[in-house]
Amino acid sequence: MTQPTENRREHLSTALALATSGVPALPLRAGKVPFGNCRRCTGNACGGRPNMKTPGPCACPAPCHGWAAATTDQNIISSGVWRKAWMQASAVAYHPGGAGLTVVDLDDADAIAWARTHLPATHTVATTRGEHWIYRGAMQSANAVRPGVDIKSTMAYARWLGSGTGTITTLPDAVRALTAKAPPPARTAPQAVTASAPVGDGPCPHRTPTYLARGLAMAEQRITQATTGVHATVYRTFLAVLSTHGRCGCLTAAHIGRLFTAAQTKGETSRHCTDAWANARTTLGL
To answer: What is the pLDDT of residues 200-211, one digit of tens each?
Structure first.
């Protein structure tokens, strides 16, 4: 959906201001998710960023590859293809690790109370449900390091929610220890699939059932082998499956259930799976 002109200008202005201060920025679509890869980059067919460890676009000028699209290059941020993205953007995000920062994302009042007891004070920004505590220093990102707490730094993005209050302090060992020592979170059993398969009427590209089976197996493997950026991996995988198999009507609820099970085994919630699937369908117009 195209955003009002004043919102587009505000998002672009915010992104340029972040870039000027050395903070890599990128646009977000509705649902707080990055823009999907362009057609030539779908499923990382272009090869993606080298090792996906540095911010900035791939050879394609579009805001592709999620967090890795974040850039401080104002010419890229205000370029024609990015302007098209800003017209649809609902928010601005940034790559904390690319700016040498770590965001401790506190999702609720209990998480905030824990942080006030166990972490040193630093710059804070209010979020919809909790707070972002921002420290100077980068580290590996991780989800659910304890109840209601995520770490967003390298190979991740955080939504820009304003300047906040307080002075940024140095990343403490207590935060680093959350990823080094925290036991893996308990996972609930995968829930039943709640997403529908697209009803396609296009030509079927599957010469044999093996083609579809192999594609789904590769998609499951891509999700289960993800070690970081699981959210982004799940979304990109859903997008790749739908771009290949979503227009001919061959995908079934059982197929989608396999993908959801793989994602939930990696710690994703049923709701996130459903949202990622819906966003991928919207991106592809299915």
So the answer is: 555 666 656 677
- SS3 letters for the chain? CCCCHHHHHHHHHHHHHHHHCCCCEEEEECCCEECCCCHHHHHHCCCCCHHHCCCCCCCCCCCCCHHHHCECCHHHHCCHHHHHHHHHCCEEEECCHHHCEEEEEECCHHHHHHHHHHCCCCEEEECCCCEEEEEECCCECEEEEECCEEEEEEECCEECCCCCECCCEECCHHHHHHHHHCCCCCCCCCCCCCCCCCCCCCCCCCCCHHHHHHHHHHHHHHHHCCCCCHHHHHHHHHHHHHHHHCCCCCCCHHHHHHHHHHHHHCCCCHHHHHHHHHHHHHHHCC
Q: Summarize pLDDT for 110-167 with one digit per residue, the tens.
A: 999 999 999 999 999 999 999 999 999 999 999 999 999 999 999 999 999 998 999 9
What is the pTM assigned to this prediction? Answer: 0.61
Q: What percentage of the chain reaches a pLDDT higher than 90?
A: 43
